[in-house]
Structures are given as C-alpha cells and as structure tokens.
Write a structure and sequence with these properties.
- The structure is a single chain.
- By secondary structure, the chain is an alpha/beta fold.
- It contains 14 helices and 18 strands.
- It has helices at residues 3-12, 26-36, 62-70, 73-78, 102-105, 117-128, 174-180, 249-259, 267-276, 303-306, 315-330, 335-354, 357-364, 369-384, and strands at residues 17-21, 40-45, 56-59, 85-89, 95-99, 113-116, 133-136, 140-144, 150-154, 159-162, 164-167, 187-200, 208-214, 217-223, 229-237, 281-288, 294-295, 298-300.
- The chain is globular.
C-alpha cells in the first residue's frame, strides 16, 4: 500500500482515542503532534499541576526544528539563558580555569537553547491545552489489553478504554513496568548519584556556573540571571545504586552529607541548605536501554523509553524528537505498523546520543586523581588558547543533529 493509499484510508477511519501518561516534556509534545494528526488525546498527570521553575535544560540540534514546527521557538528564545562562563575549582577552592560553556557542552552559541525546565513545559502546555484533555492529580492504576483496545483504570477510580496508550512518565516509568517488568533489568547505572536543590545566592554569581571537584565528587552552583537563588548540585561516584535511599528523603540527605563531610569551598553551606531544602531532587545518573519501545497497543517515549542521562545534555531533545517521530509514524498507520516505523526511524538517533555519555562524565566528574589532573590540564590549555579546543564548532556535536526530520502530512477530522 502506498503512502497516498494510507492517507486516504486514514481520513475515513474513526477518530482514535489515545491516553498519554505524563505531562512534563515528552507528554505534551506528543499530545500536540497526535492532535495535529487527528487523534482525540487525553493526558493524565499524577501531580496536581504543572511543575514550574526547575533546573536549566538544553534544546539542541534536531529538537530545535521540532519546537520551530510547533511555533514555540520565539517564546523559548525569549527565556533563553545565556551563560557567560563556566569556572572550575580545585579541592581547596582555587580556580583551575574559566571557559566558555559551549566549549564543554558542545552547544552552538546563538542557535542552541538553554531554558528553565518549567519554561519549556509551560510553552508546550500552552501550545496544546485548548485542544486536548488534561487530567491532573490522577494516574494509571491498571492497564488491560485483553480486548480490542486498552482498558485503563485510574487511581481516582474511573475507567476508560483507549485505542492506544503512551508512557511519557519519565526515567522511573510505571507504564514501562506494566509492559516489561521491573526497571532494574533496563536500568544502566553510570556510577554516580546526585542531589539537586535551590538555595540563596549569597555568592554574587550571575549567568554562570561554578564547579568544585575532587576525585569522584563535584559540587556546582548554577546562577540564572542575577536571581537571589541558585541551583545547587552535589554529585558523587558510588559503585552501586543506593536503592534504600530512593524513597527516603532523610536517607538521601544523610548519604550526601556523609559523602561530602570533609569537603571545602562552599560545600559546608550547601549541605546546610540541603537539610532545609523543600525541593530536593535525588537520583542516580543512569540510562534506560530497552530492546523495544512498545508492546501491543502501548508505546513509550522520552526518558521512559530511552533516558540518556543528564551527562549527555540530550534528555529533553530526545523527548521532543521522539514525540514528533512517534506521532508522525502513527498518522497513516495502525498501532502495530506505526510503532514499528517509530522505532526503526528513531532508534539510531537515540543510540548515537546515548553513546555521548562518556564525554560528559570525563569532563564534569572525573572519578580518579589521575583523570581529574588530566581534565584540569586540558582546561588550562583550553582557557589559555581557546582555538585548541576540538569540542565547539559551527555545527556542534554531530549526534545532536543526526536525524533529519521527515515531513508527516496531518490527517485532520479523523
């Protein structure tokens, strides 16, 4: 069957009802494109509302074309964070080097975006809120694919049937667990844990990041604009994930305090702020590697399917591109053929970006004294003679733009 035949058949099909679990980045992006292709979309989100604020995230390469097609690129340009410098410190707090952030991230000045997570989620939600149904403060309790569709029971007690269900519910996806079982079998631990929170900006920092390192430990202060708050990060190497701390904030605080107990610079003050922080986010640095991204009428997108870890800087970009590719692949196909096309056309892009992880940990979080010294020597040379860097270029890292977006024809009125 030709694409023209598929489009003709799609226009005569009844409008398909779909459910998306998760309203962060991948979920609203997928809702936008599915609505554009004629689906009746519902998004369910366990939180009571959108999460505002949040740490800065990157939108690069192919993902920039996605947000341009969505019409939200100008809005994101208006809230772009233009970092001036990235300063690295030794264990005693002395400066190692101060460099242009793009030389480390592989980003392209004047093209790539860095925005607060909440600014991106607000832009995505605004683009789609009038066209799809959002159910906040609820979540999927059970999925049953034994019939002709997917019967969903919600935590709030209601029950509905959908033609398809999509898991856009993040690294620790419950939808993925429904399909494929416990997370541990797909969780690729990268050897680090981190804690993130906000604290008062008593350091005079503005539009910059300052990072302190000792072997296997890092502390960073990230100042957006001249705000009276900074984003604080504490990252440390650990051979095995601390599973006993994942659902215990007190245990998380104790673990971080123990690891950094003898640290210098501003770390003691950061630990004090950590104790009182009401926005602590603790997790492992890890990836999700799945042999397939769907089962039956249920598919995964974004971190739920292929979390790359923040070391790549590509989590949000993969979510945006994946949402575009998944919706477009279903525009003129049934669920089976659409899911197969989504994976076939997107997996190589995902893999090449997940494989960028080795560059991020070597630069930001050297685990040994030798690796740290090598990193510091490289930074000193980079700071003294910027032209020696092999990282920045007019195009950025090739992985970021490794997929040329296909054009998918909207199928209205289904």
């Amino acid at each position: 069957m030709t694409r023209t035949d598929r489009l003709r058949n799609a226009r005569t099909m009844p409008r398909r009802k779909v459910l998306i679990s998760g309203a962060s980045i991948a979920g609203p992006a997928l809702a936008f494109w599915l609505n554009r292709h004629g689906f009746a979309v519902t998004v369910v989100e366990k939180a009571g509302s959108l999460r505002g604020g949040g740490y800065p995230i990157d939108v690069r390469g192919t993902a920039l074309e996605v947000v341009r097609k969505m019409g939200i690129l100008p809005r994101l340009r208006d809230v772009h964070i233009d970092l001036r410098r990235l300063t690295f410190l030794d264990g005693d707090g002395s400066e190692v080097a101060s460099v242009d952030p793009h030389t480390v991230t592989g980003g392209v000045a004047g093209q790539d975006l860095e925005v607060r997570r909440g600014d991106l989620t607000d832009a995505l939600y605004s683009a789609v809120r009038d066209d799809v149904e959002f159910m906040f403060d609820d979540s999927i309790d059970t999925l049953d694919q034994s019939g002709h569709g997917v019967e969903v029971t919600f935590r709030g007690g209601s029950r509905r049937t959908y033609d398809m269900v999509f898991g856009a519910d993040g690294l620790h996806s419950r939808t993925r667990e429904f399909l494929f079982g416990p997370e541990e079998q797909f969780h690729r631990y990268l050897g680090y844990c981190f804690a993130g929170f906000t604290m008062r900006n008593t350091f005079g920092l503005a539009d910059e990041v300052t990072m302190w390192n000792t072997p296997g430990r890092a502390a960073a202060l990230y100042a957006v604009g001249d705000s009276d708050e900074v984003h604080a990060f504490l990252n440390f190497a650990r051979p095995e994930p601390p599973f006993d701390a994942f659902r215990n904030p007190a245990a998380q605080r104790d673990l971080v305090a123990e690891v950094f107990a003898d640290a210098e610079w501003e770390v003691p003050g950061m630990l004090a702020a950590l104790r009182d922080a009401d926005d602590l986010f603790f997790d492992t640095v890890s990836q999700i590697r799945l042999p397939r991204w769907s089962s039956g009428r249920v598919a995964l997108v974004g971190d739920a399917a292929y979390a790359p870890s923040f070391l790549t800087g590509q989590g949000s970009s993969l979510a945006l591109v994946g949402a575009y590719m998944l919706a477009g692949s279903l525009a003129d196909r049934d669920h089976a053929a659409g899911f197969a096309a989504y994976e076939q056309d997107t997996r190589e892009f995902v893999t090449v970006n997940q494989d960028q992880v080795g560059e991020g940990d070597a630069m930001l979080f050297p685990a040994t004294a030798r690796a740290l010294e090598q990193r510091n020597n490289m930074l000193r040379k980079l700071s003294a003679v910027p032209s020696v860097s092999s990282v920045p270029s007019a195009e950025g890292r090739p992985a970021h733009s490794a997929l040329a977006l296909p054009e998918f024809t909207p199928v209205p009125g289904r």
